Amino acid sequence: MTAGVLYRMTIGERGMAIDHLDARLIVLLAREPRIGVLEMSRRLGVARGTVQARLDRLQSNGVIRGFGPQVDPAALGYPVTAFATLQIRQGQGADVRAHLATVPEVLELHTTTGSGDMLCRLVARSNADLQRVIDLVVGFEGIVRASTAIVMEDAVPLRIIPLVEQAAQDRERPGRPEKP
Amino acid sequence: MTAGVLYRMTIGERGMAIDHLDARLIVLLAREPRIGVLEMSRRLGVARGTVQARLDRLQSNGVIRGFGPQVDPAALGYPVTAFATLQIRQGQGADVRAHLATVPEVLELHTTTGSGDMLCRLVARSNADLQRVIDLVVGFEGIVRASTAIVMEDAVPLRIIPLVEQAAQDRERPGRPEKP
DNA sequence: CACCCTGCTGAGCAGATTGTCCAGTCATCA
DNA sequence: TGATGACTGGACAATCTGCTCAGCAGGGTG
């Protein structure tokens, strides 16, 4: 039973179609990242070369960005997480970006729709320490106002597997046809 | 020149102290995740057994949660990211959580300070598709109101290296003394 | 219809890496 | 001063990787 061969790379404007084997590969890799290509081929029931080729393709297509270590800020001594919405003075966006990039406690920063707004994820050593971090963040002329929400519980920790599985299913029964 | 040996594991209430070698190890691993223990030991200038022991300790202490593949939703066909703030009806928190956990496009969900508020990260196939996702999310009785911010640019993509380096430096010159 | 291309399989090989020992050295701690 | 913990440097067998090859099957093309 040839696994793939219902194979025709459909690459949309952005985004690459994933088939079921790709999805199983990613899920397997997410659950047991330390296993090698040989072991994966055994688990998935395909040839080693196939796994190797799939992995290479997934990586060169950018679906798999990498295998970097997932570091837990809490274990590092930063158990407090917060999201801050920042209101930026017109035209100061680039400066604010550069400023926030220098603050280690800023784990990510996005510009969002709305009037010069940004959203950033912060961590701190304690609730008290969060004040220091916020002062660091806000203590910059380009920032007009900041409102902060402290995270109490990670109801759904960052995940990707459900989306991968849906993407694989969408591929089998294409919702809307791609342009030929 | 013995690398470590200024070594005394100080584990706070939460969080483990990281020394400079640990930090270098994590940074190296983040930059080139595919290299093995042997290669790491060469780059870091320490014995292979040391790298192995450090890695084991970092993992069992939870600092390194794992090495799962970092999947890019955009490459999967979900280039639109948004953050939604949800206002929850009193006492419906658990139900809402369970509901949102079933939606693949919900990549993460946090409960935050404030009156029954939650913050979630969404992805969608397009701005139009985002409407479908939001309807999916909000179409649940426990949710009173939702306000959405679409991400335009990842000014600072999720990162951890600066924090790791700061944690390592903090260890060398302890800010506040641990209880003896 | 014949032909080509792509993806998958199964196999083989040399070289590198891993897991797991060990003994010895050095600094810190009781 | 003795005990403990961390690191080094070396060794071994077992395993895995990177790479190559030929063959097969399905889909698309001239």
CATH classification, class level of the largest domain in chain A? Alpha Beta
How far from one another are the termini of chain A? 28 Å
Order of helices and strands of chain A: HHHEEEHEEHEH
Largest interface (C-beta under 8 Å): A-B, 74 and 73 residues
Radius of gyration of chain A (Å) = 21 Å
User: What is the quaternary state of this protein?
Assistant: homodimer
Instruction: Give a quick account of the main beta sheet of chain A: strands, pairing sense, barrel closure.
Output: 4 strands, antiparallel
Give helix % range of chain A.
25-40%
Q: Outline of chain A, from the CA principal axes?
A: elongated
Instruction: Quote the beta fraction of chain A.
Output: 15-25%
> How many helices of chain A?
6
CATH architecture of the largest domain in chain A: 2-Layer Sandwich
